[in-house]
Amino acid sequence: MIIKMSGAATEEEIDHVVTRVKECGCQPHISRGVEHIIIGAVGSPDKRNELEALRAAPAVEDVIPITHPFKLVSRQYKLGRSIVKVGPVSIGNGEVVVIAGPCSVESRAQLLMTAHAVRDAGANMLRGGAYKPRTSPYDFQGLGVEALQFLKTAREETGLPVVTEVMSTEDVEIVAEYADMLQVGARNMQNFSLLRRLARSERPILLKRGPSATIKEWLLAAEYLLAGGNPNVVLCERGIKTFETETRNTLDLAAVALAKELSHLPVIVDPSHATGRRSLVPGVSRAAIAVGADGLMIEVHPEPERALSDGPQSLDLEGFAQLMSHLEEPAPRLARTNAVPA
Ligand code: PEP
Ligand code: MN
């Protein structure tokens, strides 16, 4: 339920509504705008009728049921869009943020070389996996804490804030000590104990969509983070499983546009995991921007053919610089031959 109050409501009037929301068995979440104050009443109310009766309370303009199962992430709940700050970078303010770096942190030299190159090419943030979710237990699993230390050095040298994946609750503390943003990998999207733990973290979260998750399930995973107290969440579409096998996954661009219609959270796109093919990354990146993505996350490696993970989808340093220089290219390609009557 959303209680919409006038922007001119006094603190006393707001407190009254907050108290009533609690008495009705819900948690109040306040969003303050200039014209309106929104109080989200989240939970299953014991006293629904009494909550609805708040229509008659002073300064209350309306009481509106939220029709979606996700509440705090919904557009209805928040006035305007969320902007998530990661160090000096803002995600969701209308500008496209580019996050780039290797799939896995493999060595100090590999990471630093990549970090400097992507920074010089215009990237805003650095990525790199320290703990890797691999399909096979025999594949490279990541360098762990050593990789976190390299990421810290890379941030110190380049100024780029760092995002890296955290796979389990026991690693949250150490990863949060080194990284500016914590990534929840696609395969962990519904790891509810991890989500609950991350909800209590001070760090912003990059929440990847599960390979088989519906948009609703993805937004409900984000709801765990917001309901648990962490409002700094960025959604990332990285392709879903379909019958197609020629691409690694199938990029759901409509989901990007729809997630932005349904939620106030920023949405970025990972064209590397979505396609699995380096040749497709530049075009798909422009398409993601065209549907309204707030950012891109792109895998880059100095020598993709030697990469310990995801080489075929990684751009080399030159390829990434090329992509950056063409990202804003317009496409004035509409056929105009039918414009003149005979
Ligand atoms: C990654 O970003 O390196 C990764 C493992 O991605 P995903 O969880 O989307 O597969
Ligand atoms: Mn990868």
Structure description:
- 32% of the residues lie in helices and 18% in strands.
- It has 11 helices and 14 strands.
- The chain has helices at residues 11-23, 48-52, 108-121, 145-158, 172-178, 192-199, 215-227, 253-262, 271-275, 281-290, 317-326, and strands at 2-6, 27-32, 36-42, 60-64, 84-86, 89-91, 97-101, 125-127, 162-165, 181-184, 205-208, 233-237, 267-269, 295-299.
- The strands form 3 sheets. The protein has an 8-stranded parallel β-barrel with strand order 7-8-9-10-11-12-13-14, surrounded by 6 helices.
- Helix 3 runs parallel beside helix 11 (317-326) and helix 6 packs across helix 7 (215-227).
- The longest helix is centred in the middle third of the chain and has 14 residues, at 108-121.
- The relative contact order is 0.12.
- The mean pLDDT is 95.
- The chain binds phosphoenolpyruvate and manganese (II) ion.
- The site of manganese (II) ion (MN) has 5 residues, from loops.
- The site of manganese (II) ion has 5 residues, from loops.
